[in-house]
Amino acid sequence: MRRLILLGAPGAGKGTQAQMLEQELGIPQISTGDILRGAIKAGTTLGQKAKGYMDRGDYVPDAVVIGLVRERLQQADTTEGWNLDGFPRTPGQAEALDTLLQQLHQHIEGVVLIDVPEPVLVERMTGRRICPLCKRVFHLSFNPPPPVPPYCTDHSDCPGELIQRPDDSIEVVPNRLAKYRQQTEPLVDYYAAQGKLHIVNGNRTPDEVYAALLTLLLAEQPPEHKTEHN
Ligand SMILES: [Zn+2]
């Protein structure tokens, strides 16, 4: 399984797993945010279109995003696999993606939901502290910063003063999780109905989650998947 989608709530560790997949297996993480920024920077036709919407504060329409994903999935680094990040977000987008992949003679081999209980997600997010200068990330319980002063001075002379991102505050986190659930549950149902959904317990160390992910990825493919490569 080398063409996949990772799903997971904020704080579930999806980004960490995506990085490990990219570094260890060479499966590139295809993030729609990156695609958008790249296309705008390159000034492609679709990039200019997307920029127009974003400058007006509008959502970029699905058709434009799909067009950008189409371009991205035809680039050389994706021939061995990809991990789509941030897309699709709705069953409508998932259907559009299925259509696009059919045209490209590709398909999603599996969708992996990294499952973490909500209280654990809340603890992970609200305890996070970041250095605004060097971007190093700490956690009050799991990866504590130097005790006094609260500076990022442990391994360097970085004078950054640690902050909590507004997104990670206890006032905001429950809303983020509710929004995630509302948005993602229909998508989970969509892929479960296709028989593509796998659930991995994400309430353990990143290495343990990665090991479970690898087991899934390397598991024997159903026959119809095998024939694609013959
Ligand atoms: Zn720093």
Question: What does this protein structure show overall?
Answer:
- The protein is built from 9 helices and 7 strands.
- The protein has 230 residues and is α/β, with parallel strands linked by helices.
- It has a domain at 3-117 and 201-229: Rossmann fold (3-Layer(aba) Sandwich), CATH 3.40.50.
- The strands form 2 sheets. Strands 2-3-1-4-7 form a 5-stranded parallel beta sheet, sandwiched between helices. The chain has a two-stranded antiparallel ribbon with strand order 5-6.
- It is globular.
- The two termini are 16 Å apart.
- Bound molecules: zinc ion (ZN).
- The site of zinc ion has 7 residues, from loops.
Provide keyphrases for this structure.
Rossmann fold, alpha/beta, 230 residues, single chain, disordered C terminus, five-stranded parallel β-sheet, two-stranded antiparallel sheet, 13% strand, binds zinc ion, 9 helices
Give a quick summary of the entry.
The protein has 230 residues and is α/β, with parallel strands linked by helices. It is built from nine helices and seven strands, in the order βαβαααβαβαββαβαα.
Give helix and strand order, one letter per element, not per position: EHEHHHEHEHEEHEHH
CATH class of one domain: Alpha Beta
Radius of gyration: 19 Å
Averaged pLDDT, please? 88
Characterize the main sheet. 5 strands, parallel
Number of strands: 7
| CATH-defined topology of one domain | Rossmann fold
Q: Which parts are unreliable, with pLDDT below 50 for 5 consecutive residues or more?
A: 225-230
Small molecules in complex: zinc ion
Largest sheet: spatial strand order: 2-3-1-4-7
The percentage of residues in β strands lies in 5-15%
Distance between the termini: 16 Å
**In DSSP terms, counting alpha (H) and pi (I) runs of 4 or more, how many helices?**
9
Instruction: Tell me the overall shape.
Output: globular
Corresponding CATH superfamily of one domain: P-loop containing nucleotide triphosphate hydrolases
* Percent in helix: 40-55%
- Mind telling me which CATH architecture of one domain this is? 3-Layer(aba) Sandwich
